């Protein structure tokens, strides 16, 4: 099977950019990734674009602006996991020998305010049972029951990630915050306060994947895409997140995140103990804590204790979201997963300055889209 490496990355900062289109942001990120990879017109054989709100032919619009069309261009939608899904498809095509070089990018301009999800039927939205904010609140409440998580833990996640994000020039929020600030922000859906929720926003990210030819020199220690998986919820659960909303409270039913993580670890031949750095879904503060458990970073019920130990902060044994996560960067859905990958590529290269994780060589990213899709990517060097 062909080995897949990452030869270039690029990113448009995440935030709000009046007068800048989805296409404009995609062009900037794609140009940066192609330039870093040394790939010019005709140098890639296919392109996959992650987007959820971009509309028809989002990827085509970006590459048309660059005069780089003619090859297969496929738009991929999997909610927050759209970029991860696109990456999985691209990597699979290279491993199968179909292509040598593939461009993967995501670009998005999110509507302001709470994200509406087409996953839910109208009656569910009218009953207040859509994904946000009621579902996030239910999920957070359940963590207080199963993992001893308190509001102080939720606030601590925000403080940690905003501290990390203060050193990230691509983040929407680049200012540290205190736990008192978090808890003083208005309650959106108990126990979640406003600052515990990420901001839907705008941005783009791009990655160039290449079949590794075994050459020496600068590519002697390339960044390998060791695993890229996508999994969906199992039958019987609306969101497979073990809340009253899902219809299941059976913890023996694995979530999409757990399924994707197991598959990615198996594909990479690694396990949670091998990880040096993680970027995980923190749509809200409780979602990060749940991710610790679902990804196997700690035992079930141990997320609060893992946070308390300091392990997941910069300087700890397993830093999580050194980019600042979605709580600092905000979330443009189609670009979200690829933004994580860009961060982790820079981490394993050692290019992250004051937010650098010392000795980072094995990295994992994780996104959950619509509650029904979960993507996990593992990088090694």
Number of helices: 12
CATH class of the largest domain: Alpha Beta
**How much helix is in the residues?**
25-40%
Q: What is the correct CATH architecture of the largest domain?
A: 3-Layer(aba) Sandwich
Poorly predicted ranges (pLDDT <50, ≥5 residues)? 239-247
According to CATH, the fold-level topology of the largest domain is Peroxisomal Thiolase, Chain A, domain 1
CATH superfamily caption of the largest domain: Thiolase/Chalcone synthase
Distance between the termini: 18 Å
- Give the spatial strand order of the biggest sheet: 3-2-4-7-1-8-11-10-9
Instruction: Give average pLDDT, whole number.
Output: 91
Could you state the order of secondary-structure elements as H and E?
EHEHEHEHHHHEEEEHEHHHHEE
Rg over CA atoms? 19 Å
Categorize the overall geometry. globular
β-strand percent reads 15-25%
Class computed from helices, strands and strand pairing: alpha/beta
Count the beta strands. Answer: 11
- What number of structural domains do the residues give? 2
Explain how this protein is built.
- With 381 residues, the protein is of the alpha/beta class.
- It folds into two domains: 118 residues, Thiolase/Chalcone synthase (Peroxisomal Thiolase, Chain A, domain 1), CATH 3.40.47.10; 227 residues, 3-Layer(aba) Sandwich (Peroxisomal Thiolase, Chain A, domain 1).
- Helix content is 34%, strand content 19%.
- It has twelve helices and eleven strands.
- It has a nine-stranded mixed β-sheet with strand order 3-2-4-7-1-8-11-10-9, with helices on both faces. A two-stranded antiparallel sheet has the order 5-6.
- α2 links the parallel β2 and β3.
- The chain is globular and about 55 Å long.
């Amino acid at each position: 099977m062909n080995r897949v490496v990452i030869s270039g990355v690029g990113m448009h900062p995440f935030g709000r950019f009046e007068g800048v289109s989805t296409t404009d942001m995609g062009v900037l990120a794609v140009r940066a990734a192609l330039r870093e990879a040394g790939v010019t017109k005709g140098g890639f054989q296919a392109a996959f674009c992650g987007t959820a709100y971009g509309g028809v032919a989002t990827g085509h619009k970006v590459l048309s602006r660059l005069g780089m069309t003619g090859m297969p261009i496929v738009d991929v939608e999997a909610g927050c996991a759209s970029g991860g899904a696109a990456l999985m498809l691209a990597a699979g095509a290279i491993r199968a020998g179909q292509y040598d070089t593939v461009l993967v990018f995501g670009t998005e301009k999110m509507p302001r305010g709470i994200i509406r999800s087409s996953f839910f039927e109208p009656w569910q939205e009218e009953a207040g049972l859509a994904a946000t904010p009621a579902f996030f609140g239910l999920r957070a409440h359940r963590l207080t029951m199963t993992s001893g998580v308190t509001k102080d833990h939720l606030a601590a996640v925000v403080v940690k990630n905003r501290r990390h994000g203060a050193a990230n020039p691509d983040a929407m929020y680049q200012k540290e915050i205190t736990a008192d600030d978090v808890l003083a922000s208005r309650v959106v859906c108990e126990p979640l306060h406003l600052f515990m929720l990420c901001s839907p926003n705008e941005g783009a990210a791009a990655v160039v994947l290449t079949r590794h030819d075994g050459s020496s020199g600068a590519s002697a220690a390339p960044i390998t895409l060791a695993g890229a998986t996508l999994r969906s919820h199992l039958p019987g659960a609306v969101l497979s997140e073990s809340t009253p909303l899902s219809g299941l409270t059976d913890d023996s039913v694995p979530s999409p995140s757990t399924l994707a993580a197991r598959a990615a670890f198996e594909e990479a031949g690694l396990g949670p103990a091998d990880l040096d750095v993680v970027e995980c879904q923190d749509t809200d503060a409780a979602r990060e804590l749940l991710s610790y458990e679902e990804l196997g970073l700690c035992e079930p019920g141990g997320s609060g204790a893992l946070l308390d130990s300091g392990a997941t902060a910069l300087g700890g044994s397993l830093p999580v979201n050194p980019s600042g996560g979605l709580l600092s960067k905000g979330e443009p859905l189609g670009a979200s997963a690829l933004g994580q990958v860009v961060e982790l590529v820079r981490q394993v290269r050692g290019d992250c300055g004051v937010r650098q994780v010392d000795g980072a060589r094995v990295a994992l990213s994780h996104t959950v889209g619509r509650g029904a899709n979960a993507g996990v990517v593992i990088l090694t060097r």
